[in-house]
Every structure is written in structure tokens, then in C-alpha cells.
Amino acid sequence: MTTKLSLGINGQDTVKKQRPVNLDLSTISLPATAKASILHRVTGVAMFFALVFVIWAWAYSLQDEQSFEYVKGLMQSPLASFIAWGTITVLIYHLIGGIRHLIMDLGHWEELDSGNLSAKITIGLWIVLAILAGVWIWF
Fold first, then answer.
1. Which residues are CB-neighbours of 107 under 8 A, at least 6 positions away?
2. Please, are residues 80 and 19 in contact by the beta-carbon 8 Å criterion?
3. Where is 14: in which H helix or E strand?
4. Alpha helices in the chain (DSSP H)
5. Rounded CA gap, 93 and 131, in Å?
6. Rounded CA separation 82/79 (Å)
7. Angle formed by the axes of helices 78-105 and 32-61, to 10°?
8. Residues 6+ apart with CB under 8 A from 85
9. Which residues pair with 4 in a beta bridge?
10. Is 138 helix (H, G, I), strand (E, B) or coil?
């Protein structure tokens, strides 16, 4: 490991170290809390884009009776069912993750063990509810 002194901002000495950089994301093991946080952010973005489809369908279906029948027929296609399931799934996770964050803001589940447990429960509950939403939509 080499150490190099250089002048930094405002003439202060800084130390630069060569550090190993791991760019292979498949070797990084994230804790459950990180996975839960990342999923919460991803589902928020996914909801934003999914709502474009939902708002279009609502607005178009309210124009007249023919538009309503068109949207109704469109919603019965397998692609629309998948989009509806995906929208409901991301909404479910974002809601559960949001409740978890609210509870953490109140001062609970901030310790390492309870935070990991709440993250695992959140992800597990989401998987169960996503499967139930799929059953509800397709059967």
C-alpha cells in the first residue's frame, strides 16, 4: 500500500491511499435492512411509472361508454393483468416499507437485530401478499 502526501483544499495536507475497489456487484452481500431500503426506493420509482398507465386508463374510461368498454376489454388481456399485478405489488411493498419507516421514525426497530428482523418480516410479508394479489387477479 502506498501513501502519498499532497496539498489539498486550503493548503492542508491530505493522504491518498490506494484501496482495493470491488466492482463485482454479485460478490457484495447486503444486509436485509439495505435490501429493504433499496426495495422501498425502487418500488417508489416503479409506482411513479405505473401510475402513468393507471391514470391514462381512468381518464380514458371516463370519456364515454365506448372508451369505458375499450379499457374494460384492454384490462382483460394478460399483459394488462401483469401490469395490474405489478402495480399492486409495488404499492403493497411501498406501503409496508413506509409503515416500517414510520415505526422506525418513532424510535422503534433501530437496533441492529430488531432492524434486521423488521426488514426480513417486511420482505416476507410482501412476498406472501404479492402471491395473494396474483391469485386474486388471475384466478
1. none
2. no
3. strand 13-17
4. 32-61, 65-74, 78-105, 112-138
5. 12
6. 5
7. 130
8. 130, 133, 134, 137, 138
9. 16
10. helix
Residue whose entry in the numeric block shows the C-alpha cell 444486509:
31
For the chain, 139 residues long, give each residue's pLDDT as a single digit of tens. Answer: 555 555 556 656 566 677 777 777 788 889 999 999 999 999 999 999 999 999 999 999 999 999 999 999 999 999 999 999 999 999 999 999 999 999 999 999 999 999 999 999 999 999 999 999 999 999 9
Q: How many CB atoms lie within 10 A of CB 64?
A: 10
Could you give the count of Cα atoms lying within 13 Å of 126 in the half-sphere of its Cβ?
Answer: 25
**pTM, entire model:** 0.77
Show the cell assigned to 104: 422506525
**Residue 44 is which amino acid?**
G
Report DSSP state, residue 77: S
**Residue with grid cell 426495495, as numbered in its chain:** 39
Number of residues written out for the chain: 139
